[in-house]
Amino acid sequence: MADYINISVLFWVLLGASVLYALTVPGRRGKGLPHGPPTLPIIGNLHQMPTRKAYIKFAEWAKQYGDMYSIKIGSTTTVVLSSRRLVKEILERRGAVTAGRPASYALEKLVFRGHFITIQQPDAPMYRVSKKLLHQYFGEPAIDRSHLRIINAEATQLIRDVMVDPDNFPHHAHRYANSFTMSATYGIRTPSHDTPHLVAITKITSQTASLIVPGRLPPVDIFPFLKLVPERLLGNWVTLCTDLQKASDKLYTSILGAVMERRKAKGPQDTFADICIDNKEDRHYFVGPDHTHPDALCYPEILKRAHAEIDMVVGEDRTPVWDDFAKLPYINQLIKETQRLRPATPIAFPHKALKGDGPRPL
């Protein structure tokens, strides 16, 4: 009888300890991690995550907790980097350790179905092939060898567009960036900011960017049982993802169709799509056109100094080209500052540590 009582007591003690663990440990920030906003049991910081414009909240936390801090969503730890130095140190110099991607059921299975290089794991066969081709065709040697003529031609139209319609400078810059990428990738230009494929790409890019913001989708990768909850109770997230997948497939199927028609009529060209087709590599590449919107410069003294440097190096008889860039240090810094104030995207796709304990305070 005494043994039975002891076993019963032990059972309830273990059960109580398990419940206490479940209520306190998940959501708690582990020792040695960068500090960050206070957490709640089980959910961590999930209750603090905004569903829109999360980068604003991240910037606020960076001012409070430093350029590297951690947040918890359930048992998952996310380390947020908010400085160029840390990004370069951790994501570039330690790239062999931090090149992984966290699981994303929504993006991997519902939206891109394994065909988006940005969210593929480094050990995936398609990732290695895709990255090799991208480096070969869009690396710096290829830019110097093959793409400068496109860049200079599109820059000429950009200057003309700004002169004719200066109030819509962001639209002109967007068209310029998209047209270069589309021309180099598919051999298809973007003559104006209301070109149908640019309108469609802008919408898809915006919707995709909203999906990667923590808190925008239910955390099904952390709490898989949420997949069983009717989606209407969770913002119709499945429909949102599948609608985006259909729009993306429709757009890129039409673009690939245009490439195939052009090849029939004029033969292959020196584009990324032609190389993939001729090499019989997997054609399901999502090469997203650049979505850069440089901020308008509102300080005339800066414009005067930049203009003076261009006049000194380039002269007044031509426009600057890529070969001049190394001789224009002020323009170089001006571009970097513009990108800091108005980055192409305020939040990058997340990385995952492949081994070790992940980033530590530097």
Automatic annotation (TrEMBL):
<dbReference type="InterPro" id="IPR050364">
    <property type="entry name" value="Cytochrome_P450_fung"/>
</dbReference>
<dbReference type="InterPro" id="IPR001128">
    <property type="entry name" value="Cyt_P450"/>
</dbReference>
<dbReference type="GO" id="GO:0016705">
    <property type="term" value="F:oxidoreductase activity, acting on paired donors, with incorporation or reduction of molecular oxygen"/>
</dbReference>
<keyword id="KW-0479">Metal-binding</keyword>
<dbReference type="GO" id="GO:0004497">
    <property type="term" value="F:monooxygenase activity"/>
</dbReference>
<dbReference type="GO" id="GO:0020037">
    <property type="term" value="F:heme binding"/>
</dbReference>
<keyword id="KW-0560">Oxidoreductase</keyword>
<dbReference type="InterPro" id="IPR036396">
    <property type="entry name" value="Cyt_P450_sf"/>
</dbReference>
<dbReference type="InterPro" id="IPR002401">
    <property type="entry name" value="Cyt_P450_E_grp-I"/>
</dbReference>
<dbReference type="Pfam" id="PF00067">
    <property type="entry name" value="p450"/>
</dbReference>
<keyword id="KW-0408">Iron</keyword>
<keyword id="KW-0503">Monooxygenase</keyword>
<protein>
    <recommendedName>
        <fullName>Cytochrome P450</fullName>
    </recommendedName>
</protein>
<comment type="similarity">
    <text>Belongs to the cytochrome P450 family.</text>
</comment>
<dbReference type="GO" id="GO:0005506">
    <property type="term" value="F:iron ion binding"/>
</dbReference>
